[in-house]
């Protein structure tokens, strides 16, 4: 057998032993050290839905741990909004005895997906927060407010159901009622922009006609049309 090949085979186990010993001596950068942070997990859900512009009822909470899932206390966690706007009650917070730290998010007013991050060094956790419309506050006339039209003609009139920040609210029922003339439907459902419409046929006689839209929890919207 080739002497060089024999020598290589005999040295291979020794090289393996040396490599293992070197790894043990160097350690794993603190990943098993219970006093050094090596992981951070979201305690509150890391994907949530909340109303735009309204402070969240519950804080965003993370838990910082070291080796063996040991909680790390007294460490600063840095919070930031990476997209979606809004504000935080705390840009930094300190972990408690259980390794937990928290902040509370107030979203921006637009219907977007926000992201809030928590960081300790290069250890990071992200919260994804989908912003949806808040409670309805107004049923706004959408388009002409006080139109004039020829008696007997047809008009398409629309309303928009919005929250306090003007965000349209979808899939809500709007009821229509006319004083004189005829309407194409007595109820409608708001689309993804919060809008619904109806076709209003004026009476054959000149004069003033009214069309009223109502939705639960908000004042009515009334169109006044002058037929000529």
Overall pLDDT confidence: 88
What share of residues are in beta strands? 35-45%
Q: Secondary-structure element sequence?
A: HEEEEEEEEEEEEEEEEEEE
Instruction: Report the strand count.
Output: 19
What is the CA-CA span between the terminal residues?
114 Å
Counting structural domains, the number is: 2
CATH structural architecture of the largest domain: Sandwich
Question: Quick one: CATH class of the largest domain?
Answer: Mainly Beta
Order of strands in the sheet with the most strands?
A: 2-10-9-4-6
* Rg, alpha carbons: 32 Å
Helix content: 10-25%
Please state the structural category: mainly beta
CATH topology of the largest domain: Immunoglobulin-like
> Which oligomeric form is depicted?
single chain
Low-confidence stretches: 1-29
Model description:
This protein is mainly beta and 228 residues long. The chain has 2 domains: 39-132, Immunoglobulins (Immunoglobulin-like, Sandwich); 138-227, Sandwich (Immunoglobulin-like), CATH 2.60.40. The chain is built from 1 helix and 19 strands. The chain has one helix spanning 3-26; strands at residues 39-42, 47-51, 60-65, 76-83, 87-88, 92-94, 100-103, 105-106, 113-120, 123-132, 138-142, 148-149, 154-162, 173-179, 182-183, 187-189, 195-201, 207-214, 221-227. The strands form 5 sheets. It has a 5-stranded mixed sheet, with no helix packed on it. The longest helix is centred in the first third of the chain and has 24 residues, at 3-26. It is rod-shaped, with a radius of gyration of 32 Å. The N and C termini lie far apart (114 Å). Residues 1-29 have low confidence and may be disordered.
């Amino acid at each position: 057998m080739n002497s060089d090949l024999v020598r290589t085979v005999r040295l291979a186990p020794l090289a393996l032993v040396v490599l293992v010993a070197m790894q043990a001596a160097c350690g794993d950068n603190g990943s098993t050290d219970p006093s050094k942070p090596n992981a951070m997990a979201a305690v509150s859900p890391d994907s949530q839905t909340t109303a735009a512009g309204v402070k969240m009822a519950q804080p965003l909470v993370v838990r910082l741990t070291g080796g063996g899932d040991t909680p790390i206390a007294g460490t600063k966690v840095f919070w930031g909004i990476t997209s979606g706007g809004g504000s935080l009650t705390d840009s930094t917070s300190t972990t408690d005895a259980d390794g937990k730290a928290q902040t509370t998010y107030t979203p921006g007013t637009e219907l977007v997906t926000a992201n809030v991050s928590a960081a300790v060094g290069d250890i990071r956790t992200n919260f994804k927060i989908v912003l949806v419309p808040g409670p309805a506050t107004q049923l706004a006339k959408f388009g002409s407010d006080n139109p004039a039209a020829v008696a007997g003609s047809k008009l398409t009139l629309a309303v928009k159901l919005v929250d306090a920040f003007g965000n349209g609210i979808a899939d809500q029922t709007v009821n229509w009622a006319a004083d004189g003339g005829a309407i194409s439907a007595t109820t409608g459902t708001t689309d993804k922009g919060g809008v619904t419409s109806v076709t209003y046929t004026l009476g054959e006689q000149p004069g003033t006609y009214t069309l009223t839209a109502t939705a639960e929890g908000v004042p009515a919207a009334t169109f006044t049309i002058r037929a000529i």
